[in-house]
Automatic annotation (TrEMBL):
SUPFAM superfamilies: ATPase domain of HSP90 chaperone/DNA topoisomerase II/histidine kinase (SSF55874), Homodimeric domain of signal transducing histidine kinase (SSF47384)
Residue intervals of the Histidine kinase domain: 217-432
Taxonomic source organism: Cytobacillus praedii
BP GO annotations: cellular response to phosphate starvation
Upper classification of the organism: Bacteria, Bacillati, Bacillota, Bacilli, Bacillales
This protein's name: histidine kinase
EC number: 2.7.13.3
Residues passing through the membrane, by range: 12-35, 176-196
Localization per Swiss-Prot or TrEMBL: Cell membrane
Region (Disordered), start-end ranges: 59-85
InterPro entries: BphY/WalK/GraS-like, HATPase_C_sf, HATPase_dom, His_kinase_dom, HisK_dim/P_dom, HisK_dim/P_sf, Sig_transdc_His_kin-like_C
Biased composition, class Basic and acidic residues, residue ranges: 69-85
Broad class of the protein's primary localization: membrane
Catalytic function, reaction form: ATP + protein L-histidine = ADP + protein N-phospho-L-histidine
């Protein structure tokens, strides 16, 4: 219950962060697009204001109404030049004296002056900077204010205004479009965030469950031998005068459980290190066949002592780069299992051969075999096909997990299949 609430909380957190990320990205995107559109739309008006200013400062005597000489009309000079000669009629010119009064009312036209300009004040904050303004809270203009001198040398301020209502309408509509689209995308991103956060949580939940299962199994496996050792020692303490010889069985059992405990803790440590990717391989060049021969030598003797037949078929004849200690550990796990799960007169064999890019090591036995339906579980930690039997043989279900990790660490694989209807074959493939 607690676990579910924790996962839910984490998922909501992921969802929230995803949502924030989507919103921030969309907002930045919107701001950039609107800014760009604004800049593009106003650039034409700004260009015209600047060329008008240039015309006024270069030919101060010429006004807005100055005609273009006829001879120039025939030759049609470049557009920029023509614009300078014949400025845009949309531009309104206001001239202010130092006291902030408009001095060219007659040029503007009295009705225009009365309706729009009359109450206007001279604002020198944005001198020489093209700025936006609205007249009567209704009409949008861009203007450029600059200082000049009149014919008597008196300082006057010239304000060039250009109406930008059309541009502003496009920008307003565009802003609306962007806002509406952003809202729609943010709503859509809520569901996208939900799906993404669920996907993100899946591997976390999976490894959390695996970890919890691992800890539970490990504690269980540790507790059993500890309980046995404790019981046996307590039993010995009840009869302190007894001879060791008479209590031999109890002592031997305690000792074997201690060995089991020691093997279990070292396996657990190997897997814990494997999980934290702490263990690094020390690779060296190994001649596969002679290495296998060396590892198998003691097993040939053990098999003989147990009336089992051990055969070797070594045909690899190549060397590989591998960690000798880890590869030895992998083979020992497979050979130990082969011995554990076979009876008298069974046979155990190791075969090596090379494929195109791989070296193959096969460990086969004619023992009890593994049921087809259980094969997919045998590399899982603590999995044992027959728990009661494994306890007898000392198995804890960690060996094959370690073998799989070693194979993977060498960029190889380990697979299992039935050995000709009796027993098992493990196939390890390692890169050449
Ligand atoms: P264990 O220490 O129990 O042998 P492993 O991880 O090595 O743990 O093996 C997991 C299980 O796979 C074993 O409990 C056993 O059921 C099965 N198994 C492994 N090797 C063999 C084999 N050669 N023959 C039959 N069963 C095997």
């Amino acid at each position: 219950m607690f676990k579910k609430a924790l996962f839910r909380k984490q998922q909501l957190k992921f969802m929230f962060f995803n949502l924030i990320a989507f919103t921030v990205i969309l907002t930045i995107f919107g701001i950039i697009i609107i800014g760009q559109v604004q800049r593009t739309l106003f650039s034409k008006s700004d260009e015209e204001l600047l060329s008008f200013k240039e015309m006024m400062t270069e030919h101060p005597s010429r006004g807005f109404e100055s005609p273009l000489p006829d001879d120039k009309m025939d030759r049609l000079p470049p557009r920029e030049e023509r614009q300078r000669e014949h400025p845009n009629p949309r531009i309104i010119v206001l001239k202010w004296n130092k006291n902030g009064e408009i001095i060219n009312q007659n040029e503007i036209g009295s009705s225009f002056y009365e309706s729009f300009i009359k109450g206007a004040q001279l604002d020198k904050t944005n001198l020489n900077i093209i700025t936006n303004t609205t007249i009567n809270n209704l009409y949008h203009f861009r203007y450029l204010l600059f200082e000049t001198a009149d014919s008597e040398g008196e300082i006057i301020y010239t304000q060039l205004l250009i109406n930008t209502d059309a541009e502003q309408t496009i920008i307003d509509n565009f802003e609306w479009l962007i806002i509406v689209c952003s809202i729609i995308f943010i709503i859509l991103s809520i569901s996208a965030s939900y799906i993404l956060s669920r996907k993100m949580m899946k591997p976390i939940i999976h490894s959390w469950n695996k970890q919890a299962e691992f800890v539970e199994n490990a504690s269980h496996e540790l507790r059993t031998p500890l309980t046995i050792i404790q019981n046996k020692l307590e039993l010995l303490l009840t009869e302190p005068h007894e001879k060791i010889m008479n209590k031999f069985e109890n002592i031997a059992l305690s000792l074997s459980e201690t060995r089991r405990l020691s093997k279990l803790t070292s396996d657990l440590l190997t897997l814990a290190r494997a999980d934290s990717a702490e263990t690094q391989l020390t690779k060296q060049i190994l001649d596969v066949d002679s290495f296998i021969q060396k590892v198998c030598a003691p097993y040939i003797e053990i098999a003989e002592s147990q009336d089992k037949h051990f055969w070797l078929n070594l045909n690899c004849k190549v060397s590989i780069e591998a960690d000798e200690v880890r590869l030895h550990q992998l083979l020992v796990i497979l050979l130990d299992n082969a011995l554990k799960y076979t009876s008298d007169d069974d046979s155990i064999g190791v075969k090596t051969y090379a494929e195109e890019h791989k070296v193959v090591l096969e460990v086969s036995d004619t023992g009890i075999g593994i049921k087809e339906e259980n094969m997919k579980y045998i590399f899982d930690r603590f999995y044992r096909e027959d728990k009661a039997r494994s306890r007898e043989t000392g198995g804890m279900g960690l060996g094959l997990s370690i073998a799989q990790w070693i194979a993977a660490k060498h960029n190889g694989t380990i697979t299992v299949f039935q050995n000709n209807h009796k027993g098992t074959t493990f196939k390890v493939k390692l890169p050449k």
